[in-house]
Amino acid sequence: MKFKSLIYEINENLSNSKRPVILIGDGIRQSGTIDDFLGLAKKIEIPVLSSRFAQDIISAAENFYGYIGSHGTRYSNRILYESDTIISIGNRLDFEPTSATFGSIAEKIKIRIDCDKNEFSDKLPNCKSFLYDLREIMPELAQNISSHSKKSWNKFCNELKTELFASDIAYPLTAITKILQSISKDSIIVSDVGNNELYLCRAYEYVQIKNRKIHSKSFGTVGSSLPKAIGAYYAKNVPVICFTGDQGLMFNSQELQFIMANKLPISIILINNQSLNMIKDEQTRRKIDFIHSTIESGYSVPNFEKVVRAYGMMHHYMYEDRTDFSDVLKLGMVLIEVVAEPDEYKNPYLPKGNKCWDFVTK
To answer: Is the pTM for the entire model greater than 0.90?
Structure first.
């Protein structure tokens, strides 16, 4: 057995813990080991949590309990907080180990596996780090890690998820969930940068679909959703559902010409809150005046129906005009506009110093 030491450490830690979790990141996808990991997760029967960008890897599994982080789901962060052993696989663990919010989490990470030694720069007090390529080790892990079901712990996680599953679901998230329920199983979902991305992740978790979901991660590239959607279509030749915000669509609306000229099956879901809400929220937290982030401070949006009509897009719908979008989403070349008041929904966030599950919405 080539990776005997790692396999022993994982089995030993899981056997000796009462509340273990597996925490995964996008390294699972990047290494091409999703199938092996899904087999491992099903076999060991303990809760699995993910980063937000790895949410779609295991979204339909019974022992998946959502995505963690400063914009995670409440029950996911609470499960992470209540755990006593964390096995991290392909996750960057991108948080400050000494912070009041995540410091107690750092103490519970017993094993981390990554292919980049730079990810081990943060020293974790109780952790053993293994520098491995997941392509090499995942088949052996799937074969040699034993089942470690903890019935009382799994029961606690199920009860917590049931209690908090619908938390933070309000309009426009309710509109997004309806739209996600209408998309085909082979559709790829892409998002822009901004609140639309956070809305999408929470609604995706609520609907519990399996579709591939593509983000910009930490690059902050507002306006990237439309060009990403075009690239996703040519890569996979399947329908693409493109989520964007009002600012993002204004950044790259010229891509509508390419979509129409080539008759691409790309559907655009526009979350139009007539403001730069994420920037506005940051200005509020910093206690400074709004600057070009609201209608009153100089920001404005066009009539998006006229914009898409100008590019020849024949289908434009306001969300409230229909109850089912499955037929139009199959065709693509459609824009569905979800209009929200600028202050209608507040994304939960974690103030510095709060426990990792103690989100604030105002």
So the answer is: yes
